[in-house]
Each structure stands twice: as C-alpha cells, then as structure tokens.
Design a protein that fits this description.
CATH class: Alpha Beta
Order of helices and strands: HEEHEEEEEEEHEEEEEH
Number of strands: 14
Helix content: 10-25%
Strand content: 25-35%
Distance between the termini: 64 Å
Structural class: alpha+beta
Shape: globular
Number of domains: 1
Strand order of the largest sheet: 3-6-9-10-11-12
CATH superfamily: tt1808, chain A
Radius of gyration: 17 Å
Largest sheet: 6 strands, mixed
CATH topology: tt1808, chain A
C-alpha cells in the first residue's frame, strides 16, 4: 500500500507577514530560511559606508537606496510572492515598486555583505534568485578579503568583475556613480 508523502509546507508573503516569533526570515520559493543574528561591527561599518556613498550620489535623483531589514518580494507577486529577501542594501529606481510592505519586484541593484553564516547562501541561492528575478546588478562583498564581485545582468546571465580594496568601481545601473572601495573597507 502506497503511503502519501508528507506534505511539505509552502509559504507566501501573506503567511510571512503573520509570523510573530521574533525571528527574522527570508522566503525562497516558499521555503523559510532563518536569518543570522545581528551582523558584526565590520559588516555594519561596510554597509554604512556603502549607504553614505549611494545616498550622497542619489540626493535629488529619483532612485532610492535602502538598507536591511527591508522586505523585497522579489518576483513582484505582492502577497502571493513566495520569495521574500532582505538584502543588506538595495537601489530602486522605479518608485512604484515601493509600498508600505517594502519592495514589490526586483530592485535595480542589490548588495550582499558576506558573513561566515551567509556566504554560501548569498553566493549560490540568492545569486540564482536575483538573476532569475532580473536584478540588473548584484554586488557580493567579502569583508575578509576586502573584495567585491560585481555581477551585471546581460542576456539573462551575470558577468562578473572583481574589485579590490583600493579600486573605484562604476555602478552600471546609475550613470556616473562611482564607489570608492578604499573608504568602504577602511576600518
């Protein structure tokens, strides 16, 4: 006699919004992933400097830079979206994607700052999710090696350019924006 397989639970953003257990989650294809505890001071310092440089460049411009925790319903399906992420930083130029619940749809750019507990998830799972959702530019920042992998979406695939802590890099989705990594990685 065949036994039915145990039913795997599938969640959407509507379910996610009801969780009140004090734990931060991301939702990938309907599966919840518990997020790490608060980031290190080094992580926060890097994030703050990225935010400063982006905010200075974007002052008076239509695009907006936002920081975690901030919900991104990556596929733009509103309450029915089964993928909700909280990137360290994101840039959104289409303000109609921003609502009271966060961002509904793929941001123009995402930055993830690696930590030992998130590195694999950010490099593999989120890499694929961001590519599939159409995030035009994805930067993976490694505080330990003081390096950045800038992934630019071209014809449905990411092309990757590597930068070090003394480089200055263009932000391809923001014409004229240059980020100075010497300041980003300064301690």
């Amino acid at each position: 006699m065949n036994m039915p397989l145990p039913k795997e639970e599938y969640f959407t953003f509507a379910d996610y919004q009801k969780w009140e257990d004090g734990v931060r989650y991301e939702l990938i294809d309907g599966v919840p992933y518990m997020m790490s505890p608060a980031p290190s001071w080094k992580h926060q310092s890097i994030s703050s400097e990225f935010h400063r440089q982006f905010a200075n460049f974007l002052k008076g411009k239509p695009c907006k830079v936002l920081t975690a925790p901030f919900d991104v319903r990556l596929n733009g399906a509103g309450d029915n979206d089964d993928t909700v992420v909280q990137p360290d930083l994101l840039v959104v130029c289409d303000r109609s994607k921003l609502d009271e619940a966060g961002c509904n749809g793929a941001p123009d750019m995402v930055i993830e700052i690696l930590s030992p507990s998130t590195a694999r998830h950010d490099r593999l799972i989120k890499f694929q999710q961001y590519r599939q959702a159409g995030v035009r530019e994805y930067w993976i920042v490694d505080p330990d090696t003081k390096s950045v992998q800038a992934c630019l979406l071209e014809n449905g695939k990411y092309t990757v350019t590597a930068y070090g802590d003394t480089d200055t890099a263009p932000v391809n989705v923001l014409d004229g924006c240059m980020i100075n990594f010497k300041d980003v990685f300064a301690e």
